[in-house]
Design goal:
- By secondary structure, the chain is mainly alpha-helical.
- The protein has helices at 26-36, 39-63, 67-84, 87-99, 105-126; strands at 3-8, 11-16.
- Helix 2 (39-63) packs antiparallel against helix 3.
- It is elongated and about 50 Å long.
- It starts with a strand and ends with a helix.
């Protein structure tokens, strides 16, 4: 199993691949290094609190053939994921944004399932900070 370096509880640690979906971005690492590490758990919680209901809205949008709603939710999650260093999540959101208008619902659901699984991995990795 591959290990990666991440920062948790103000110190670097090595974690195994199931938690490798996320590593603290350099900008956030600088905050932690500047004695603002207490802000990191707040940002992680805000990301979780914002993302989880949007994933539910995306599922509803697919069920209701609401391409605009799906596109908007994917775009919003993508921005947060990019800022929080969750690049794989951002990539899946970009795929969903581009596919929202003309992709069969079954394929959109498959991609949403992948996004939800990635979010679960990212959040597990982020929880090392809390």
């Amino acid at each position: 199993m591959k290990t990666v370096e991440c920062y948790a509880n103000d110190s670097p640690s090595r974690i195994s691949q199931p938690y490798a979906a996320w590593a603290l971005p350099e900008t956030l690492r600088q905050l932690a290094d500047d004695q603002a590490a207490g802000l990191i758990p707040e940002l992680i919680e805000a990301f979780r609190a914002d993302t989880a209901p949007r994933l539910s809205r995306m599922r509803e949008a697919i069920a209701n053939a609401d391409a605009k709603g799906l596109n908007n939710a994917a775009h919003t999650i993508k921005g947060g994921a990019q800022q929080m260093g969750a690049g794989a999540m951002a990539s899946i959101c970009q795929e969903l944004e581009l596919a929202a208008m003309d992709t069969p619902a079954s394929e959109l659901v498959r991609r949403l399932n992948a996004l939800e699984a990635e979010f679960a991995q990212v959040y597990r990795a982020m929880s090392l900070w809390t």
